[in-house]
Amino acid sequence: xxxxxxxxxxxAARFAWDEFFYAEHHNPHTQKAYMRVVKRFxxxxxxxxxxxxxxxxxxxxxxxxxxGGSPAKRNLHLSALxxxxxxxxxxxxxxxxxxxxxxxxxxxxxxGKTPA
Length: 116
Prior knowledge:
The model is unreliable at 1-8 (pLDDT under 50).
């Protein structure tokens, strides 16, 4: 599993991975979407030469901005990463959740009359 090597904490990281994806999320669509998000982020972090304990809120913000796309897409990524880092904190793989202080993207809605 990729997260164990990247986090440098082996068993605890593996446990957090299994707990987050298989014990917390029972919906297969959520599991698949969140797993895709986390794997993409881990690949990005590896490309930056940064290990999980060194990820900062600013780095996470840069990652989300670099994603582009719709606000819903970026908020999905943020939600998945918040939950994943929460598990890593609980298992003592990282000290703090860098996603906790990152704000989501607001979707702009235009109010007015509905076209007839």
